[in-house]
From TrEMBL:
Species of origin: Linum tenue
Superkingdom of origin organism: Eukaryota
Designated name of the protein: MHD1 domain-containing protein
MHD2 domain: residues covered: 382-492
Residue ranges of domain MHD1 in the record: 104-247
InterPro entries tied to this protein: Munc13_1 (IPR014770), Munc13_dom-2 (IPR014772), PATROL1_C (IPR057984), unc-13_homologue (IPR008528)
Length: 551
């Protein structure tokens, strides 16, 4: 009797294995027909579903009977099915090199089959001493999700690499044409965002169960591509320091030297010095002010669209991931990867472009009416700030009409900063063509007032508090031009004593140029004295530092 039962059990398991092998043989034979037929890969998905149904049938019909004589009747059956399918799956996996719809179907079905078979084996051995471990050990994992994840990662890398190549290629051809579209945004900027959006959409259309796990890797790759675009978009545009000219050596005035018109040689040297600080941005139309405005608009457009992409990604994540594959963090949208690199680089890029445009206008484009002309000549009153302000106003109109509303205040503020810096440089480092008498403070203060009014524009321009904030240094230094030379010398000595200690009593050290101007800063006070056109100042400079005369 026992022999008969054992033979029956063996016969049943043999029957299960035979059915599986017959199904495999049928699928194998279906691989051979014409190429016009459907590819054989989805058949493995069909086979996985069939095997799963067969396993549950075996568990429901035969296992309850044979369990009386065999403790793991269902477990032995599913282990056999698991092993049989594993051979076909391994052969398939070794031939797959890229993510395809067929590959996803097969791997998804294989993963579901394995979970079903393991569940049957565990439930069958729930009362056994080892909890079914001996059976589970006979079922090496398919690792279908790991294989699928690697294929998706390869898919992500391919898409990201293509986008990076596109960025490198198209930015070389971008001309930053302000007439390209009504938003005055570079076409390449619109296109790169469209590609990012399409890539994200294609990712969520993939029928995979691990969107939340692999999304950060995709977003990080796209983020790096966008950051590369932004960095290249602002590359070569210059910075504040690249346009500010080198400061001339300190000299002293001699009474009457103010009435000497400075030589052509000096003009040529100024021009050469100015050009040397412009760098690559001087001779290329793609770095003109209209083009710089397009670059600002493009970076602002990207920054705004990043927020849209992040919100859309959160919605897609909720809609495309099955609840069994997502945790609460991703459900709430907290875990969605941000475009942090590109967002930060956009903000920094806009700041740099606004500064570059402002300082290019003031120190390069308008250098003839500011650096080369303001307060130059026999009389300060004949070379005042009006011509410079007229040119600045024209450039402000160009910027205001071209840049996005959200960027405009920043761009105009930087223009004001550049003008104030230029104004101070003329006063404190204007070279041998400048010399101021005590009476000139009236003209200087009035010109400063005109400069402020240009940016306030009767309340239609920048807020007064913003103007006051950035003009604080100029306001603090202008009173020095009202002071007589004796008082300036005493203040300078006091500031030097405070800065350098008792050592300065015997001999005052020459204060270094820090660029941080202030009414109590030794170098600032010394410069006011250097440009003071009277005998008291020039004698002090001769005796204390032996500075050369103004040429």
């Amino acid at each position: 009797m026992l022999l008969q039962i054992g033979l029956t059990l063996i016969s049943d398991h043999h029957c299960v294995l035979l059915l599986t092998r017959q199904r495999m043989k049928k699928i194998t034979s279906s691989k051979q027909p014409s190429r016009n037929l459907q590819t054989p890969l989805p058949q493995l998905a069909i086979l996985a579903n069939d095997i799963s149904q067969l396993a549950f049938s075996e568990k429901a019909i035969f296992s309850p009977i044979f369990k009386r004589w065999h403790p793991h009747a269902a477990g032995v059956a599913v282990a056999t099915l698991h092993s049989s399918y594993s051979k076909e799956l391994n052969q398939f996996v070794s031939s797959v090199s890229e993510l395809t719809p067929d590959a996803i179907q097969v791997l998804t079905a294989a993963d579901k089959l394995e979970k079903d078979l393991v569940q049957i084996a565990v439930e069958d051995a729930v009362d056994s001493e080892d909890g079914g471990k001996s059976i589970i050990q006979q079922m090496p994992p398919y690792e279908a999700e790991a294989v699928m994840a690697n294929l998706v990662k390869s898919w992500i890398k391919t898409r990201v690499d293509r986008l990076k190549e596109w960025v490198d290629r198209n930015l070389q051809q971008e001309v930053w044409n302000p007439r390209a579209n009504k938003e005055r945004v570079a076409p390449s900027g619109v296109e790169v965002l469209r590609t990012v959006d399409e890539t994200l959409e294609a990712f969520f259309l993939l029928p995979i169960p691990m969107h939340s796990a692999l999304l950060p890797e995709l977003v990080a790759g796209l983020d790096r591509c966008l950051q590369s675009y932004i960095l290249k978009a602002k590359s070569g545009c210059g910075t504040r320091s690249s346009y500010i000219p080198a400061l001339p050596a300190l000299t002293r005035c001699t009474t009457g030297s103010k009435f000497q018109v400075f030589k052509k040689k000096e003009k040529s040297q100024m021009s050469q010095r100015r050009k040397s600080h412009v760098g690559t941005a001087s001779g290329d139309d793609s770095y003109g002010i209209p083009q710089l405005c397009v670059r600002m608009n493009t970076l602002h457009h990207i920054r705004m669209q990043l927020e849209v992409l992040e919100k859309r990604t959160t919605i897609q994540l909720r809609n495309n991931i099955k609840s069994g594959h997502v945790n609460d963090e991703f459900t709430n949208g907290v875990g969605v990867k941000k475009f942090e690199l590109s967002a930060t680089t956009c903000v920094e890029g806009i700041q740099q472009l606004c500064e570059a445009a402002a300082y290019k206008i003031v120190f390069h484009d308008l250098s003839p009416v500011m650096w080369d002309s303001l307060y130059v000549g026999e009389d300060v009153s004949t070379s005042r700030i009006d011509p410079f302000l007229q040119e600045v106003e024209q450039n402000l109109e160009i910027i205001s009409s071209m840049v996005h509303d959200r960027v405009r205040t920043r761009a105009i503020t930087d223009m004001m900063r550049a003008c104030l810096d230029g104004f101070l440089l003329v006063l404190l480092a204007g070279g041998s063509s400048r010399a101021f008498s005590l009476q000139d403070h009236v003209v200087i203060e009035e010109d400063y007032k005109f400069l402020r009014e240009l940016f306030w524009s009767n309340g239609d321009g920048l807020p007064l508090e913003l103007i006051d904030k950035y003009s604080a240094t100029v306001r603090s230094i202008l009173p020095l031009y009202r002071m007589d030379s004796e008082s300036l010398i005493e203040r300078f000595k006091s500031a030097a004593l405070e800065a350098y200690g008792t050592a300065s009593k015997s001999r005052l050290p020459l204060p270094p140029t820090t660029g941080h101007w202030g009414p109590s800063e030794p170098n600032t006070l010394l410069r006011v004295l250097c440009y003071r056109n009277d005998e008291t100042a020039t004698k002090f400079l001769k005796k204390t530092y032996n500075l050369p005369k103004k040429l």
